[in-house]
Amino acid sequence: MTAFPDGFLWGAATAPHQTEGNNLNSDFWANEGLMPGMDFSGDACDSYHRYAEDMELLAAAGYTSYRFGIEWARIEPRPGMISRAELAHYRRMIDTAVSLGLTPVVTLHHFTNPKWFADEGGWLVDSAVARFAAYVDAVIPILSGVAWVCTMNEPNMLSMMTGMARLAADPEARARWTSPTIDGDPDAAQARPQLPPPDAEIGRRLVAAHHAVRDRIRERTGARVGWTVANRAFEILPGGESRARDLSWQWEDLYLEASRGDDFVGVQSYSTLQVGPDGQVAHEPRPDDTLVGTPFRPDAVGIAVRHCWQVTAGVPILITENGIATSDDAQRIAYTRGALDAVQCALDEGVDVRGYLHWSLLDNFEWGHWEPTFGLIAVDRETFVRRPKPSFGWLGEIARSNGAALSG
Ligand code: IFM
User: Fold this and answer.
1) I need a labelling partner for 253 at 20 to 30 A (CA). Which of 58, 83, 88, 106 fits?
2) Contact at 8 Å (CB) between 269 and 231?
3) Architecture of domain 9-398 in CATH?
4) Closest atom of ligand 1 relative to the 182 alpha carbon
5) Which residue has the least CA distance to atom 9 on ligand 1?
6) 54-94, pLDDT tens digit by residue?
7) C-alpha–C-alpha distance, residues 105 and 65, integer Å
8) For residue 238, how far is its CA from the centre of ligand 1 (angstroms)?
9) What mean pLDDT do residues 348-370 have?
């Protein structure tokens, strides 16, 4: 087995809306509670105030990197009104990470938009690209010294969610809403319409937004710039080749092809999806399924990494999310061990993987739900006290040994 390369990043990831709390000016905040069964983010994990504690935990446990995001709705609460105080807040986050020896990986957009932007038509209108570019221009000055910048998180999921927002105008569709990130909620599965695939028209606008900001971030900060893609890790059953090609393009290759010319692509992988001659094959429930109803497949990240490597024609890969929704931390460790084995195999084959960031550092707000817990650290919802799980220390030791402890 190849050792993990020197400088390989070992970290964990979060997103602003899911952890900070009180993201008052965002579109997601405005919609919380509107649909049946949808919870509020409220104070979330209060990471807006407790980010230093989160980072100190990471650094002390042996991790070398932290992926977090900047919230557009805080930076630009009204069109064109830039909050200097919020820019300073995020610069303090970057400085705190660096002072603790953590390489910051900074995401500029993670699903949520300012409410005013959504009211203006959001990603459904052409002005979106210029609006996003203006926000990014405001943020660039605080990014100096940041080595890794993700322009957008999972544009493929964002284009699906934006498409779903069209449905929100329809009261009947709204009544059957479930979180788009929860694939297999068994109670919801029957009532729920089939999730629409990402909308390619919206996807092309997101590609334009990514390309509009990529070069200027690079030139003005020196950062490596890329975006992150949700990978479905398709498994092709006999006869499913042609359906798999179509689905793969619709779900991810449109976005991966747009990564050619980027400095890296963020791979985000959780489970697999089978495709047969008639399309996606429904997963038969199993006892070891995750809390979001997906199969337990630690090897998914290996499939995802190889697919991205091939479609991007060799763009370096940073695993910006990989993890499991489970309440059984031993299962989390088993999953992560299997995932890291798969990453090591890909490295062996020559795939250029630069780091592994686990999703998530904290049990956080899973887009309308609190129950599917992905965290290495539990958070008390009343007191915000952080309680590291055994998996947190386990992965920290692997980080400290640059992967050598995996074979121990
Ligand atoms: O919580 C999400 C994250 O915001 C984007 N990627 C998938 C995660 C788990 O569903």
Assistant:
1) 106
2) yes
3) Alpha-Beta Barrel (3.20)
4) 10
5) 181
6) 999 999 999 999 999 999 999 999 999 999 999 999 999 99
7) 7
8) 30
9) 97
User: For 139-184, how does the pLDDT look when each residue is reduced to its tens digit (9 = 90+)?
Assistant: 999 999 999 999 999 999 999 988 777 666 666 666 665 555 654 4
Q: Which residue type sits at 352?
A: D
Instruction: Judge if the beta carbon of residue 289 lies within 6 A of ligand 1.
Output: no
Does residue 257 surpass a pLDDT of 60? yes
- Please identify, by atom number, the ligand 1 atom nearest to the C-alpha of residue 153: 5
Instruction: For ligand 1, atom 10, name the residue with the nearest CA.
Output: 181
Asked if residue 366 has its Cβ within 6 Å of ligand 1, the reply is yes
Against a cut of 0.85, is the pTM above it?
A: yes
Sequence-ordered list of residues with C-beta below 8 angstroms from that of 189, at least 6 positions apart, any chain: 293
**DSSP H/E element including 269:** strand 265-269
The residues spanned by each domain of the chain are 9-398
**Closest by CA position to 326, among listed 297, 361, 289, 368:** 289
Q: Which tokens go with 97?
A: 């990470």
Ligand 1 neighbour 268 (Cβ under 6 A): yes
